[in-house]
Amino acid sequence: MKAFISGAAGALGQEVVRQLRRAKAKFLATDIKQLDITDFQKTSKVLFDYRPDVILHFAAVSDVDGCETDRDRALRVNGLSTMGLAIIAKRLRAKMLYTSTNCVFSGAGEDAYTEYSRPDPVNEYGRTKLLGESYVKDICDRYFIVRTSWLFGRNAKTYLSRFLAEEKKPASINVICDQFASLTYVEHLAEAILRIVKSENYGIYHIVNSGIASWLDFVLRAKKIMRFRTTIRAIKIEELNLPAKRPRYSPLASHNYEYLFSCQMKTWEEGLNEYITLLLRKP
Ligand SMILES: NC(=O)c1ccc[n+]([C@@H]2O[C@H](COP(=O)([O-])OP(=O)(O)OC[C@H]3O[C@@H](n4cnc5c(N)ncnc54)[C@H](OP(=O)(O)O)[C@@H]3O)[C@@H](O)[C@H]2O)c1
User: Fold this and answer.
1) What is the pLDDT of residues 2-46, one digit of tens each?
2) Cα 83 to Cα 260: distance, rounded to the nearest angstrom
3) Distance of CA 4 to CAs 56, 103, 105, 226, 270, Å?
4) Atom of ligand 1 at shortest distance to CA of 125?
């Protein structure tokens, strides 16, 4: 495998690079400093020079509120650049793997979303990521769309992931209690992605840890294990007055991966245990 990676400085990108390096695989890792994927000419040149057989497209504007306040950037990075990479993948006859999100769903239902549930995004992040999905599906034959949700682990930008990694924790924090979804340990996601991309099992995947939780469930469990003193104050999302709407209930059911690869994703509690073990091992 000879892989091109966009968004390699992000949480998922860094973890995939770490695992590829360990496997001594060939890859070209880029992020915005080396290659701005909104520049189609430059991106084409880099990719046609390198000629990967796999494109791992992780670059995104992943800040949900940022997408609402800068819609043009969200469209260019999440939507149009994905079209550009899909066209390049098709011309190079490379496999294309694109990461998408639970935010393509409205979250208004009572059940977990399967790979074939109907998307109906409620914010600009979800709308632009869904546009990226459409380009990949329409343009590429050999594609994988990997939807994931609420990443935690090394380098994840999510507020609580960073909070757990902090040496000096604040006296108290507010944590949202009325949004429910699947949580995903970034190491488990990277392992699944590298497994999927080596296969010929094209299509849509939901890759998340099993189980459903709120961020409050997550932090309370972490507190029990790590025994930090921070007081946790449960708040409702509306109290934060955020620019973007969020899906209220958007867990993802991981049917295709389990069926096609005969394996089960670990629970989010197992993922959290592994992450905490890693944090406590740090000097
Ligand atoms: N994080 C989550 O909870 C979550 C949930 C569901 C799905 N996902 C999806 O999973 C993928 C990886 O997420 P992540 O958490 O690793 O995201 P991340 O940490 O935000 O990484 C994305 C990387 O892409 C870079 N980037 C932005 N614009 C770019 C451009 N024009 N050219 C090149 N690189 C650019 C970002 O740089 P800057 O930081 O400088 O902008 C960042 O380093 C994304 O597709 C995301 O939509 C994430």
Assistant:
1) 999 999 999 999 999 999 999 999 999 999 999 999 999 999 999
2) 27
3) 6, 26, 29, 38, 30
4) 47
- Choosing from 6, 32, 149 the residue with most ligand 1 atoms within 8 A of its CB, the one to mutate for a pocket test is 32
Task: Locate the ligand 1 atom nearest the alpha carbon of residue 57 and give its number.
Answer: 45
pLDDT in tens, 127-168: 999 999 999 999 999 999 999 999 999 999 988 999 999 999
- Quote the CA–CA distance of 141 and 121 in Å, as a whole number: 25
Residue type, 212: I
Model confidence at 238, pLDDT cuts 50, 70, 90, reads very high
How many angstroms separate the alpha carbon of residue 203 from the centre of ligand 1? 21
Q: Where are the domains of the chain?
A: 2-214+241-281
Distance 225 CA to ligand 1 centre (A): 29
Going from the Cα of 50 to the center of ligand 1, the distance in angstroms, rounded, reads 22
pTM score of the predicted model: 0.97
Residues whose CB is less than 8 angstroms from the CB of residue 18 and which lie 6 or more positions away in sequence, other chains included: 190
- According to DSSP, the β-strands at 54-57 and 95-101 are parallel
Q: What is the pLDDT of residue 213?
A: 98
CA 78/CA 49 separation, integer angstroms: 24
Report the pocket of ligand 1 as residue ranges, CB < 6 Å.
Answer: 6-7, 9-13, 31-32, 36-38, 58-62, 77, 99, 101, 129, 148-151, 157-158
CA 144, 12, 132: angle at the middle one, nearest 5?
40
Tell how far the Cα of 229 is from the centroid of ligand 1, in angstroms. Answer: 32
Q: What CATH class is the domain 2-214+241-281?
A: alpha beta
